[in-house]
């Protein structure tokens, strides 16, 4: 994931290994392909990339209410579906660049049916190295339309890394930024939003953020903190809208996670709550 700015150490990152939370998210997406019907998000590469045994053995779900674990898994599937749908709509409207920030084990670039649509994956070098090895082991080809942009934020600059990777800042782009914001300091979030909003030709960003956690979410937070990847930043809908407007976004959709899940799947009104995450799709005005 995109995480560190100078002054913040992510102890859960190990040399040559992916982020623990990035891996857990990939396991959830893969297990969704095996366990959930109807399926919200179809990804034929998810299980191949992670491995079926790993898909069934998510350490963050151990000892958790199975229904709560399922609802979290459905949310992760929903946010991937929402991002995929946004990219597909943008490509249909003429966008030809997609930037996946904190890509983790995301597979969108390898499922891309459009040879003229370029994907850029931004992530920590160790996560990318592990992923490239797994892609090779799983027989998943890295297409010519995909470029890795390794970024260690202790040393590197996002704008410089994407420029070096070949992103054209004068043309429109879609930015997918899932499972990252809650791990970032406020100034890093604001800086990234300003960078995205500065995309010439217009930008679309899809990302998730979390409300301040309730008691149930706090327990989840303790689990991720224990592996060295603590939650850092929380927002209300009003606070996030203010951040987006300050950065330069003019068209903002904000959806509660559970409401969006229910738009794709039948989730009973009773049962464990999933109050925290929200999904946002925001746009800037095109310069064209």
UniProtKB/TrEMBL annotation:
The UniProt record lists the EC number as: 2.1.1.-
Query: What's its top-level EC category?
Result: transferase
**GO MF entry, a single one:** methyltransferase activity
Q: Which UniProt keywords apply?
A: Methyltransferase, S-adenosyl-L-methionine, Transferase
What Gene Ontology terms for biological process does this UniProt record contain?
methylation
Domain of life where this protein originates: Bacteria
Query: Main role?
Result: Exhibits S-adenosyl-L-methionine-dependent methyltransferase activity.
The family this protein is said to belong to: Belongs to the UPF0677 family.
Protein name, UniProt field: S-adenosyl-L-methionine-dependent methyltransferase
């Amino acid at each position: 994931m995109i995480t560190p700015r100078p002054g913040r150490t992510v102890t859960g990152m190990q040399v040559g290994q992916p982020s623990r939370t990035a891996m857990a998210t990939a396991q959830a997406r893969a297990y969704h392909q095996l366990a959930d019907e109807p399926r919200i998000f179809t990804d034929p590469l998810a299980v191949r990339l992670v491995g079926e045994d790993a898909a069934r053995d998510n350490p963050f779900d151990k000892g958790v209410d199975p229904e709560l674990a399922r609802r979290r898994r459905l949310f992760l599937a929903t946010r991937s579906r929402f991002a995929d749908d946004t990219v597909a709509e943008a490509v249909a409207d003429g966008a030809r660049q997609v930037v996946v920030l904190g890509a983790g084990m995301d597979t969108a670039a390898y499922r891309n049916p459009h040879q003229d649509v370029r994907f850029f994956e931004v992530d920590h070098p160790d996560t990318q190295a592990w992923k490239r090895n797994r892609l090779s082991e799983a027989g998943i080809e890295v297409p010519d339309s995909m470029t890795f942009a390794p970024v260690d934020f202790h040393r590197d600059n996002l704008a410089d890394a994407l420029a070096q990777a070949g992103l054209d800042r004068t043309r429109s782009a879609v930015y997918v930024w899932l499972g990252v914001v809650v791990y970032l300091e406020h100034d890093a979030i604001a800086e990234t939003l300003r960078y995205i909003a500065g995309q010439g030709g217009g930008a679309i960003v899809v990302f998730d953020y979390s409300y301040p956690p309730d008691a149930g979410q706090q327990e989840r937070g303790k689990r991720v903190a224990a592996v060295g990847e603590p939650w850092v930043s929380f927002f209300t809908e009003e606070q996030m809208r203010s951040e987006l407007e300050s950065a330069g976004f003019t068209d903002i959709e904000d959806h509660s996670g559970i409401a969006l899940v229910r738009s794709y799947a039948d989730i009973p009104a009773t049962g464990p709550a999933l109050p925290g995450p929200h999904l946002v799709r925001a746009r800037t005005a095109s310069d064209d």
